[in-house]
Amino acid sequence: MTQLIGKRSWAIPEGYIPAESTGDDPALESHETVCVLNTTDEDANLEITVYFPDREPVGPYEKSVPASRTRHFRFDAFEEPEPIPRGEPYASTVQSDVPVVCQHTRLDSRQAENALLSTIAFPDG
Amino acid sequence: MTQLIGKRSWAIPEGYIPAESTGDDPALESHETVCVLNTTDEDANLEITVYFPDREPVGPYEKSVPASRTRHFRFDAFEEPEPIPRGEPYASTVQSDVPVVCQHTRLDSRQAENALLSTIAFPDG
Amino acid sequence: MTQLIGKRSWAIPEGYIPAESTGDDPALESHETVCVLNTTDEDANLEITVYFPDREPVGPYEKSVPASRTRHFRFDAFEEPEPIPRGEPYASTVQSDVPVVCQHTRLDSRQAENALLSTIAFPDG
Amino acid sequence: MTQLIGKRSWAIPEGYIPAESTGDDPALESHETVCVLNTTDEDANLEITVYFPDREPVGPYEKSVPASRTRHFRFDAFEEPEPIPRGEPYASTVQSDVPVVCQHTRLDSRQAENALLSTIAFPDG
C-alpha cells in the first residue's frame, strides 16, 4: 500500500541535551531524539556517529528498526560505545542499509514550561 | 496564477500525541496535525498510514483535500480504521493521487504554557 | 562573494494566526511570517496566494524584496486584496520572478509564555 | 565509516536575535545559532554573509570547522566585520569550500520560559 520512501544517509548538525530538567516524569526530562521510519519490508541496520567540537567522532552506535516499524531513539539513552555528555554541543549522522526517514526533536525542560524543536534531518545518498 | 507544486508521497517519522493537556479550549488541547496543501485543480485523495514501534502499521486512513484547498488533519481525530493512542510514539506516511505539500505540527499543552514544533514533511515520488 | 541560491516557487501548508495574544508589545503579538531572502542582484517581485479549507484562494498579495535584501512579511499585516482572518487554518504559496529562499515562522503568545515554530518552506521550480 | 554528506552553499532566511533575555545564565540568553557539521577529512573554511531589510549585506564572517568536527556558531557572538544588531530582522548564507550540513536554531528567553525553533537550512550547490 505504501511506497518505499527514504534515504540511506542522514545528518543532524544541531545536538544539545540540556543538563537540567524540571520535574520527575521521564517523558518530560530534557532530551533529544532521532525518530526513524522504516517503510521497507527489510529490517534497517543503523550506524549512528556522533561528532563533537574538539575531539574525534564516537561510534558507531548500532541500532535497528524492524521492517514496517518506527523507532524513536533518545540520545541521552545511548550507552555503547559511550554515553553522550549533557550540556555540550554535538552533531550526528545516521547510516542505514535500507532507505529510512529521520527526524530530529528536542524537548527542553530546563524551565518550568517546556520548549520543543523539530526538523526533518538532512538526507543524502 | 499559481504553479503546480508538490509530491505524491510524504513521510513524518516523529509522531507523539501527549496524553495530557491543560485547560478546556479544544484548540489548546495537545495535538498533532498534518497540514496538506493541494494547489492542483483536481481533488486529492489521500491514504495515510500510521507506523508503530512494535506492531503492524494501521491504515489507510482515507482523507481528501479538494482542488485549490488546504486541510489541516488532527491525528487525535482519526477514527477509521482505529484511533491513534495518546502517549505512544508513532510515524506516518501520506500518499496522494495528485501532487500535494505536507507539513507536520505539534502543539504540546501538557504544561501551563504551550510548546510548538513544525517541519515540512519528507517528500518523495 | 555569495552564490545565487534559491527557487522561484515555495509552499507553506501550515498557517494559523492565533486569535489571542498576551501583552501589548507588537513584537510579541501572535503572528506568522514568511521570511524571504533575495541573494540575487535583481529585485524579486513576489505573488503570494493564500489557501483556505472551504473557499477559493485569495491573491495575489504583491510584495517585493530588493536585490541583496531580506524581508520578513507578517501574514497578519496583509491587507490587499483582503486581510487573513485570525483563528482559521490557511496555507500559502510564494511565486517569485527571481530565485529566493523562504522560511515560515510562527510566534504564539496566546499564553503568558511564547511558543515558536519554524521551517524552511517547500521549494519547487 | 561515515559517507561524505552535505552541500557547499546554504541559506537561512529567518534571523532575529531578541533584544531581551531573562536570567543570568549565558546558555539561556536569547540567541540564534548556525550549527555546522563537517564530515569530510578536510577543514571547512566558511564565509557567512548577513543580509538586512534596508542596507547592504555584511560579510564575510570567516569561520572554520575542522575535519570530522561540528561547530555551533552564535550569531550574537559575531564581531568581525561588525556585530549583528539585536531586535532587527536579518538573514544569512553560508559558503563552504567542502561539503557541510547547516541547521538554524533560536532560543528565545524574552519571557520567563524559553521558546525554541529549529530547521535544517536551505541547501544548494
Explained architecture:
- The structure is a homotetramer of 125-residue chains.
- With 125 residues, chain A is an all-beta fold.
- Helix content of chain A is 0%, strand content 50%.
- In chain A, strands 1, 2, 3, 4, 5, 6, 7 and 8 form an eight-stranded antiparallel sheet that branches.
- In chain A, strand 6 and strand 7 (115-120) form a beta hairpin.
- Chains in contact: A-B, A-C, A-D, B-C, B-D, C-D.
- At the A-B interface, strand 2, strand 5, strand 6 and strand 7 of A face strand 1, strand 3, strand 6 and strand 7 of B.
Mind telling me the C-alpha Rg of chain A?
Answer: 15 Å
Global shape of chain A = globular
Total number of strands of chain A: 8
The N- and C-terminal alpha carbons of chain A lie at a distance of: 24 Å
Query: Which regions of chain A are unreliable across 5 or more consecutive residues at pLDDT < 50?
Result: none
Give the SSE order of chain A as H and E letters.
Answer: EEEEEEEE
Helix content of chain A: under 10%
- Oligomer classification: homotetramer
Q: How many helical elements of chain A?
A: 0
Most strands sheet of chain A: 8 strands, antiparallel
Into which percentage range does the β-strand content of chain A fall?
A: over 45%
Largest contact between chains: A-B, 32 and 41 residues
> What structural category characterises the helix and strand content of chain A?
mainly beta
Mean pLDDT of chain A equals: 89
